[in-house]
Each structure stands twice: as C-alpha cells, then as structure tokens.
Amino acid sequence: MHIRREVVHRVPTARLPKSYDRPVSIETHDAAIAAAHDVAAALAPGAIERDRAGATAVPVEALALLDNSGLLGITVPVEDGGPGLGPSTLAEVTRVIAAADPAIAQVPQAHYLLVDILAAHGDKETRSLLYADVLSNKRIGNGFAERGGKHAQDLKTRLTSGRLNGRKYYTTGALTSSWIAVSALDDTGRLVLAFVPRDAAGVTVDTDWDVMGQRATISGTATFDDVPVQLTFDYAHAYEVPQQLGARAQIVHAAIEVGIAGAALRDARAYLKEKARPSTEAVRKGASTAADDPHVLHRYGRIATRVHAAEALLAAAARTLDEIGLIPESADEAARGSLAVAGAKAFGSEVAVEAASELFQMCGTSATASKYDLDRHWRNARTHSVHDPLDWKYHHIAAYDLADVLPPNHGQI
C-alpha cells in the first residue's frame, strides 16, 4: 500500500467489543442498531484526537472497528447471503455513528451505494465475488470525482483495452479499502465502473487531504496508472432507467448531517449543565446558572426542536425509500423517493450548521477553548453540507410541487 508519508501514525481507539473478535453476523434491524451503538461508544473517546490529527494519522484502528462490526454487509440482499436490511436501518446506523464521529461514518457511504448498484444491476459473477468479500468485512472505496473539468463528473479517466488510467479526488474510503470502484469512460465513450483491488499494481492512494472538517475521512488523491481491470459495470445504464440509487446514497449523507446536529446539541447540553456560567447580565436579572438565562433557554429549546425535526424528517424519508424499494416501478415513484431525501438532506444540513454555531452562543466564550474541540461540529457540518448544493434540492422540491417537474435522474438529488 502506497501512502505519501512514509510513517502512518495510528490514532488510539477503544478496544473492540469482545463479540467483534470473531466474524459478526447481523440479521435484524435491532441487531444493526445495537452494533452501531457499540461502534459509536468505542469511537467517541478518540474523535477529538482523530479530528486534530487529520491526514497525518490514518485512523486504521477506528476503521477496523467499523469494518469488523458486521455493519458493512447489512444491505447485501438476502438472495446473496446478506440480511437485506433497508434504508431505515442504514440511516439510523449512520446517524448513530456520525454522532460519535461523522468522519468515520462517512467512509463507507460509497460502499453502501456500490452494494446497492450491484444489487440492482450487477451480474451474478460480480455479485458473488464482491458480496463474498463484503460479508467478510471487506470495504469498497470510491474513485468517482475529478478535478480540473467543468464539474466533478467531467471525467478524464479512461478504461481502454482493459487498462485503467486516470486521477481521482475526494476518494473517501479508498485509502483503507479492499476494492476501489472507479468511474471512467470506455473505448466508446460510455460511462462504466471499474472494480480494482486496492493493492493492484499501478494503484496509488495519497493522504493529501487538507480541509477544515471531516478530516479523518482522508479523501485524497488516487492515481490509476495502466491498471489491469477484469471487473466492469455499465454505470450509465443505472441512470437511464428510474432509480433510487441516488436517493439511497443521499440518505446516508443526510444521516451524517443529522448525526452532527445531534452531537452538537448533546455537547451543548452537557456543557450547559456542567461547565457554563451565566452571563453578567443574566445574573443581574436573577439567573444563578447558565440554564436559568431565559435567552439560553429560548435558544436551546428552539435548536433542540429543530434537531428533533431533522431526525424525524430523516426517518420519514428513509421509510419512503423502504416503501419504494431499490428498483422503483416508475419515474414518479423514483421522484417521490428522491425528493423525500432531498428535503431531509437540505434541512438536516442547515440544522447541523445552525446547532453547531448556536452551541457557542449558548455556552459562551469559555466553550471555544481548544481543549474541548467543540468547533469540530461546525467544521464537520459546514464541510460535509457542501457535498452537493442544497439550493438545488429546494429548487427541485418546488418545481415538482408547483409544476409537476420531475427531478433529474442522477445521484445528487
């Protein structure tokens, strides 16, 4: 494995629960949620250190914790040996883990999308090979986005005569994955996915990830230099028919934002109860604690309500996807799922940024001390919320409601 820095520093993580010392089989929604809480509890103590370390310390132990939890396989279809759990389970699993460490929660986002892609359109041979690995705790990373073009999907990567050449960025999960799914144009100019082993000759994944938030995702540059490819998939076809792949990918992003919002509210509550002092003006008006300040009470009540609303909207959107299924019956059904998730993602992102900012207004100057690292909530929310534009989500919701215009059939809604 090539990493740009010669030494990979490890960020300590709490020990795995004993049940994770052997292969874990998760069969039910309740078991998946319980596993997510176990993972979150183990991740939480190291979240600040991982945030501060960023790309200087690849979080290999934290990711091993996630990979070995059994959660990577929860959406593998029953007919392929998995439990076939749906979006409601995945959204709640992601939200719980994101409240502990949203960077670690984001790493398998593309993995779950790729599991869905294979379920909807993969051939028997490819499904058999890759699902066997997924159910053995092996993760699939992504090589989708590029720099230098008119937009992130203006691809220069090519798959020619079975050889892959190109350069990708925002490769979340690729650094520590077993497989990387790479989008490319084939000999005919058609969009395909090439599945390549992470350790294949010609594959280089760097730690050149330097951003203000979601630092531990280490979503840096991946280079593919004449890499031989045996597994390919006609990716263009997935978006030539009514699909829920985009919505199911976006529900994970929405859950990450809602998890961050809940974490900011949680830490605000703890700080107000344990550390915050009332302002001088509040004391003059009779307050004895920060929680007695009527303005703090108003702000906390307002943001708590909005966080709970975001959680409810996320759950409702996930239930909509459960109802529709992976392959929608019509374009209208596909639109219903996409727009439900668009609303949850847009609102959840706004609430996460707001909650992370309001934390400081409620808790005061002392809460900005670097030892608490409370600013990570805002940095994480702000960084992740611009993954794709929220304004276009509201635009498509309104266009459908006001003029029956179906949203575009791609993965960003």
UniProtKB/TrEMBL annotation:
Keywords: Flavoprotein, FMN, Monooxygenase, Nucleotide-binding, Oxidoreductase. Its main location: cytoplasm. Pathway: Sulfur metabolism; dibenzothiophene degradation. Residues 251-388 form the Acyl-CoA dehydrogenase C-terminal domain. GO terms for molecular function: 3-methylbutanoyl-CoA dehydrogenase activity; flavin adenine dinucleotide binding; monooxygenase activity. InterPro entries: Acyl-CoA_DH_C, Acyl-CoA_Oxase/DH_mid-dom, Acyl-CoA_Oxase/DH_mid-dom_sf, AcylCo_DH-like_C, AcylCoA_DH/ox_N, AcylCoA_DH/ox_N_sf, AcylCoA_DH/oxidase_NM_dom_sf. It is found in: Cytoplasm. Residues 148-227 form the Acyl-CoA oxidase/dehydrogenase middle domain. Residues 28-130 form the Acyl-CoA dehydrogenase/oxidase N-terminal domain. It catalyses: dibenzothiophene 5-oxide + FMNH2 + O2 = dibenzothiophene 5,5-dioxide + FMN + H2O + H(+); dibenzothiophene + 2 FMNH2 + 2 O2 = dibenzothiophene 5,5-dioxide + 2 FMN + 2 H2O + 2 H(+); dibenzothiophene + FMNH2 + O2 = dibenzothiophene 5-oxide + FMN + H2O + H(+). The keyword Flavoprotein applies. GO terms for cellular component: cytoplasm. Its EC number is 1.14.14.21. GO terms for biological process: L-leucine catabolic process. Belongs to the DszC flavin monooxygenase family. This is Dibenzothiophene monooxygenase. The lineage of its organism: Bacteria, Bacillati, Actinomycetota, Actinomycetes, Micromonosporales.
